[in-house]
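In this supplementary section we document a worked example of the pipeline. Step one takes a protein sequence of length 372 as its only input; no multiple sequence alignment statistics are reported here. Step two produces a three-dimensional model, which step three serialises into structure tokens for compact storage. The input and output of this example are shown verbatim.
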Amino acid sequence: MRTTAHPGPPGRVRLTAAGPGAQITPRAPRRISLRLASGLLVILTPVVVALAVALGPVTIAPGDVVSIVLHHLFGAAPTAAAVDDHIVWEFRVPRVLLSLLAGAALAVAGAVLQTVIRNPLADPYVLGIASGASLGAVSVLVLGATGAGFLASLGVSGAAFAGAVVTLAIVLALGRRHGRLDPPRLILSGVAVTYLFQAGTSFLQLTASPDKLSTVLFWLLGSVAGAKWSELAVPAVAVVLCLGWLLGQGRRLNALMMGDDVASALGIGLARFRTVLLVICALLTALVVAVAGGVGFVGLIAPHFVRLLSGPNHLRSLPLTSLVGGLFLVVADLAGRTVAAPLELPLSVITAVVGVPVFLFALLHRRPGVPA
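The serialised model returned by step three reads:
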């Protein structure tokens, strides 16, 4: 049998059979598995969120969790104890929501960067954004209001965001060649800036007092323990808007993945589009690092895991990637505050310990022909 490839919409290739009696092998099983996985993820999201709110050092009945949430959202009559109400609404709900937002942001940013830079190992930290954010935050934590100067007036989260923005500006300036962004040069610039800022962060850790050092290390490894309602609104709005915009760029991302010639032929301004994508991904990363610290591995594992299931089409993969990343970080945070209670483990420890085996298992058992 002979097959012929016909170009379709961006990111799609349609195969037709030629010759007498030729038949096309149906792709239904993959579509069914994709739809089934999508449906399971949609169903699992509220279930996992509810369990993450209910479980912890103090376990609260799921019925009481629902009652507390309904009471605060719609004014329903409260049936849970006042102490349970305080634990659920003031501590756990903001924490779980922040985990969901941070995981979704890192996962989508990783998927987009892997397409823009054309490197399957790219993650949200490849441009050095995390190192700049960490240097800003650690400066405030270690040096305090006197030593950190202007950064101290911004607070830890504000200093982290400012450091991320400055790092992005430096990397974008260094990553240009002849007025255009050059992906290899961009990566090398990000790596160089990362090592430089990590050296500064390490120096500050050496000068930190023992009581401050534990806080610095915990922040560098990621934590959502400090989530508060008052600090959740700005990152939530920004993350939702950025994710919504990126999800709407699925077809253009598919064209970009097929090569510069194809993207240019479809009328996409490559230089401007790449710059906007990098800025959006950097903004997402900066927001996450500013409120949750250096959460590692989510932006690498989630896009690859979803791609093994759905293929490279961003129209399908990006929504699933945001859900997988969000749920993964919610589960990681739940594990971090329960498996070694009363000791709480940083997020990056859990994401690495849990994520690496799952990622390797999925990679070794992937279907032939499905890109990694």
